[in-house]
Amino acid sequence: MLRRAVQIASLVAFAVLLGAAIVTNSDTTAFEWVLGADPSLSLMSAISGRVFMAAFIPAVVLMALGFVVGRGFCGYVCPMGTCVDGIDHVIAAKRSTGNRWRNAKYVILGLMLGAAALGVSLVYLASPFSLIARILGIVVYPVLSALTEAGLWAVRPVAELADWNAVVFAKVETPSFDTQLFLLVFLGGLVAAARVAPRFWCANLCPAGAMLALTSWRPVVRRRVSQACGGCAKCADVCPMGAIDPDDQFVTRHDECILCRTCQSVCPKGAVSFLPSPEEVAPPESAGIIVGRRQFVLGGLAGLGTAGTTLVKAEEHRLRPPGAVPEADFLARCVRCAACVAVCPQNALQPLYDATGMSGLFSPGLVPAGGYCDPECSRCGAVCPTEAIVELTGEERLWAKTGTAEIVREDCLAWENKEKCMVCDEVCPFDAVVFKIEPDHPVTVPHVEENKCVGCGYCENACPVKRPAAIRVAPKNAVRLMAGSYVAEGRKRGLDIALDATPPLPGQNGVETTNDKSDTGPAPGFDAPAPGFSP
Amino acid sequence: MDRRKFLNTSAKGAIALGAGLVPHISLAATSPDVALVKGAPGAAARAAVEMIGGMGSVVKKGNRVVIKPNMSFASTPNVGANTHPLVVQAIAAMCWEAGASSVLILDHSLAPGPICLERSGVKAAAATVRDDMVYMVNDSDHYSDVKIKDGKTLKETEIVKSVLRADVLIAAPTAKSHSGAGVSLSLKGMMGLIYDRGSLHRKGLDSCIIDLCTVLRADLSVIDATHVLSTNGPRGPGKVLDENKVIASRDMVAADAVAVAEFTWYGKKFQPRQVAHIRHAHERGLGRMDIENLRVERLVL
Question: N or C terminus: fewer CB in 10 A for chain B?
Fold first, then answer.
């Protein structure tokens, strides 16, 4: 069936675009534009972020298309709709009992709008593309990855015997993500809703569907019924959206119709068409659309209230990805699609439950305990559809300071246990950890040179003291800009950021490369000469 | 191109081997304990190994070999944190020439593996010999638990499986200082073949290194001292001494001891005994640090 084919192709395309962003370094513009096609996601982001982006254009086009094809998008393209159809296919309600809560979606839309008006983004609650991107990135991707890993594990014994080194050492890293529970609960909800009515989500809850409904009240392509209709009401019975009046099947709620044409296929008289037909009977005048205006206003007030509760400025106590715009703008822009989290090659980003209160729910944070932030990588910025994280390159990227490492001396092996440990220094790409000899201390101990530290978290990640590490990155002195240069801002703040293993230029490799500080001091790790022993 | 280079390298190797073979037969019994050769990295590595009896005395036909260089820092050879790629290339080529059935070049990095492999130059250099030798083993799947019978502090640890399967283990470290262990050479380098290095730092580094080396006792040490990282190791950047030397020995303690004594560290000269883990290794019979009583032969190419 054509519709099924289009639906599956669309879902696969969505998944492939996200998958390509995860496993390759390819351009992500297409994915960003696809995400922007969700009208609720784009509208809320535009309002809460006070910004219009090119990636929002598809949503505008889609809304305009409502005048032509109504909510055909919901029936044919939306990957969430496809998932709902899939679930319905397996465990559908026996019959459509109508979707009586259809105005609830206007409450949700109003809630999101009200919050957005005060600069708080609630896109994460219900925008279908945010949800579906998260389901694919946070739940499906790790599962697929784990399956691949298991496959490799299964063939490894054979590969070892055959000395297929490339297979033996092939590496698939299954990431672990937080907030999967929320998504699983959401999916559980979708399944439960399928028992109540088909397309329950789309008809009753989806804010994108609510927005599309606004331009779909009388589209060019719409359900039309001819004189041949015998009034059997089979169509009303099978309509997944409950868009057909069971008492008068000439009446269609076009704002609810997703053009699935199920009614057409079941009609014993062939009375249903979707293009203008000479036999069509005009529906009675009363059949206008009734947008849930009251619910919409109610939702709006609730949204304002919700946003109001989050206006108390919460302290930034979590690290953000490099290139994240200032916290307030960041939260207003971030749609919680978690694409950044999924694409991070080091699994260093996590959707957070506890970032900045309710307004920060599911927003991405840098968690060095799980992975370090590669100072030359800006994949999270590249994939971000709303520029909540800006893609940075070269020096600008290096200088995008996410925080500052701090040594917790009472946990540190060198400070507290007097062990010869220098792992933090060994891994620091910026030479920001310096081991010094302290009086009355048998081993050298680490110090952080804060102006050199970018908060990448290599040290925290590698610290042999675990949970929590003895060196931890705090958001202290993070540089976050809406515009302008990270290098210029960093210099102004007295930062001195440079990768310390930058290869010297050709010809610099003289007899002695003296970019070193301590040639005359004591030699760390060597014993002092024995008494009477002359070296 | 690769194949041609390979054949070329093999041919050169064969000639070198052939040239070395004759004296060995007669002088095998009198091979020096340690060879110290000054010259270009690849040639010096070859010459040094030839002097102590040739790769044929270490690698037998059909042997599985693991080479452990330093390649776990994302820096170029001149920083001195990684083994010079041409030294690794020469060692690997010699192993194949000696009839090895498998040669793997392995390390366990803290920094991202692919970047280290690329920037160290080891992967590209080794690929001219064979393209399936160099791997960064950062996955716990590749390790299996080993009891350390003679361990005093470290009683068990997880070691790379391929190393446990190997017949021959070759240490191929770069000569560098180490802020915790004084120097990082053949002995310290074996920490690159275990999974959990952190606990060694917790338990006491010097003692653990030696415990580990009782099970990871290299059959051959080839220390690359092309760019000696004399200060600020193991990562650098620090003062780099361009010594252009390679040290080879069947005794990893002796090789390390010669490297300590040969170069200046933090601007000073040290005796091997001043490096705690080398002293422990000597005391526990893992090898000899008393280089004054060993035959150290020098050659300038």
Answer: N
